[in-house]
Design goal:
- This protein is an alpha+beta fold.
- The protein is built from seven helices and twelve strands.
- The chain has helices at residues 56-62, 83-92, 144-154, 206-216, 218-224, 228-237, 239-251, and strands spanning 29-32, 35-38, 50-51, 54-55, 72-76, 99-113, 125-142, 158-164, 170-171, 180-186, 190-191, 255-256.
- The strands form three sheets. Strands 1, 2, 5, 6, 7, 8, 9 and 10 form an eight-stranded mixed beta sheet that branches.
- It is globular.
């Protein structure tokens, strides 16, 4: 079976912050430990898609795990789309159960940058509302234990919102539409670009983002500069410094609230 290393998907952003957000699941698959098993998309409900000669639900049930109908669909805008990051988060809590991960199209959600600095030192992605866009995002189906672990890594910097499918069209590659899915929304809002006042695009090159923030703010330059490697090293080592950086975002007027999510 293809391993994450063989596929070039084994970089863990929590361990190498400048690789954030990591490489997302490139196609519908099941994450099982350090392996990524391809899912064969069919015009059927997700649980009936074939994987390794069985349906997905048969495969999960054969492992003693919850089938898709007893799992929570969770949309990722940042590193939770990375199989390596998800595997790392689960392994730290001793969880080895499999995770279906499927890229899909989501209407009305764009990807920006959260107006805070994460524990690993990077500036993570965060969603914002834009009814005109359709974004390709990875959705994972988490069992109850996996859901609890991911919650623990996101809260309180993010809050969990439930997006209704009637307001946010979510379309799987099979053409099936989801009735709803969870999404983590930053409690601090998203970062604005000082030149346009619009949200800064997120989910791209982390080093380029940090270099831009350092160039745009003397306060951040003094706290976390002079370069991106200095930023992540200093921020990861000092919670107070991360908090001061977050306050610098707010003081500069860059933190755009996102009250419109459910």
């Amino acid at each position: 079976m293809p391993s994450l290393s063989a596929l070039g998907l084994d970089e863990v952003p929590a361990l190498r912050p400048l690789t954030y957000p990591g490489r997302p699941a490139p196609w519908p698959a099941v994450l099982a430990g350090d392996e990524l098993l391809p899912l064969d998309v069919r015009p059927l409900p997700l649980g009936q898609w074939p994987v390794a000669g069985l349906t997905l639900d048969e495969t999960l049930s054969g492992r003693g795990e919850a089938p898709t109908g007893r799992r929570h669909p969770v949309i990722a805008v940042g590193s939770n789309a990375s199989p390596a990051q998800v595997a790392y988060k689960l392994a730290r809590r001793g969880i080895t159960s499999a995770v279906p991960m499927v890229p899909m199209r989501v209407r009305g959600v764009a990807v920006g940058c959260s107006a805070h600095i994460g524990r690993a030192g990077y500036v993570a992605a965060a969603p914002y509302l834009d009814p005109a866009v359709e974004t390709s995002l990875v959705v994972s189906w988490l069992d109850q234990d996996q859901f609890r672990v991911v919650d623990d890594t996101e809260l309180p910097n993010y809050r969990r919102a439930l997006l209704p499918g009637g307001d946010f069209a979510m379309t799987l590659p099979s053409g099936e539409r989801l009735d709803g899915a969870y999404l983590y929304v930053s409690t601090y809002g998203v970062l604005a670009d000082p030149r346009s006042g619009l949200p800064r695009p997120g989910g791209g090159d982390q080093a380029a983002l940090l270099a831009s923030l350092i160039a745009d703010s003397a306060a951040l330059r003094g706290l976390l500069g002079p370069g991106p490697a200095d930023w992540v090293r200093k921020a990861a080592a000092d919670r107070e410094l991360r908090d001061r950086g977050r306050r610098a975002f707010a003081d500069a007027g860059w933190a755009l609230p996102q009250p419109g999510f459910p």
